[in-house]
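Researcher: Here's the sequence for the chain we discussed earlier.
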Amino acid sequence: MSSRLNPYISLKDNARAAMEFYRSVFGGELALNTFGEFGDRDAPGADLIMHGMLETPQGFTLMAADTPPGMEHNPGTNFAVSLSGDDADELNGWWAKLSDGGAVQVPLEKQMWGDTFGMCLDRFGVGWMVNIAGTSS
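Model: Thanks. This is the structure I predict for it:
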């Protein structure tokens, strides 16, 4: 997989409906995973979308998720730029540069779904998400 850059939208309890709408607009393949699939299936918000990805026939990729229970949702600042792929060296390098002088929100480390993931705000206040597929670190 090559690295890619795409928008990632944070929504409040309606990511499933939004992503299904975007699929109706653009077509394509939609994948949705809930918080319950990766944790307590009985916890509040378990049926909310932890990660949604639409890949369209035109080559667009749009990602979205519901804001987890207990986290603040701020419309107008509810997006991030997502960098993902399997080139760990390249993605780690971008992470280091993007987070330098900014604020790390989620450290770049192995996550429960098996990938290495982190979130930061760069020095300009732009949100970034970095996901390195299937790494062993």
